[in-house]
Specification:
By secondary structure, the protein is mostly helical. The chain is about 55% helix and about 5% strand. About 10% of the residues are buried.
Length: about 220
């Protein structure tokens, strides 16, 4: 739903987005573990979990009803129907869809995620909040560790020095006037100084042996 997102990018995550069945199973597990165990032991499919969560009060028959008859129905019938039929889709199956078809299906899946969340928000909120509080201290400790590690490395950092290798750049750039290459003066100094003062092209390749400090320079 991001404006300007390429269709290829939309397709790349769409098959994961459409896998709402594990999500609804998780909700049922959290709010009614006995019912979850019952349906799981009977190897019930997505429709059974939808009904157990009471997300289908219109009693849509997912195999016989037609989507054109469900447009505008209450309780998001059109979106529920479309989402049900996406449950096993793979990315390659929607490659030939138009943008409209793609975003209709994305919209429907998002609607059902929100519909289920909203319906069980009061039950799910304390469960989620408790789990978050239990992890919060460890998460903060982890972040502090990352910060301290970074400060330690930066504290030992020495600016990487080098010089421009015109021969090396020829493989990656096309000069407008090749006769100027021989006359070009190689630039040299620290990466930081070159970046700030001498690289009019606003781009450079850092080339050096392992452990020279290339990654740290970039950081």
């Amino acid at each position: 739903m991001v404006e300007g997102l390429k269709k290829d990018d939309s397709l790349s995550y769409f098959s994961d987005l459409a896998k709402i069945e594990p999500y609804l199973r998780k909700i049922l597990y959290l709010i009614d573990q006995a019912k979850f165990e019952e349906l799981s032991s009977e190897k019930k499919g997505l429709d059974a979990f939808i009904n157990a969560l009471k997300l289908n009060p219109n009693r849509i028959d997912f195999e016989k009803d037609k989507i054109e008859n469900l447009s505008g129905t209450s309780n998001f019938g059109e979106h529920l129907y479309r989402t049900y039929h996406l449950r096993n889709i793979e990315g390659h199956q929607c490659e030939n869809w138009t943008y409209r078809e793609l975003y209709e299906n994305i919209e429907s899946v998002l609607v059902i995620y929100l519909y289920a969340n909203n319906k069980f928000a009061k039950t799910l909120k304390p469960i989620v909040e408790v789990a978050y509080k239990e992890r919060e201290a460890d998460f903060k400790t982890y972040l502090e560790g990352v910060k301290e590690n970074f400060k330690s490395r930066i504290g030992r950092f020495i600016h990487l020095k080098g010089h421009e290798d015109i021969k090396l750049t020829l493989g990656y750039a096309v000069e407008r006037f090749s006769e100027q290459i021989a006359e070009k003066t190689e630039r040299k100094g620290t990466i930081d100084d070159l970046r700030k003062n001498h690289i009019k092209e606003n781009r450079m390749m850092i080339w050096g042996d392992a452990e020279m400090g290339k990654s740290t320079t970039l950081e």
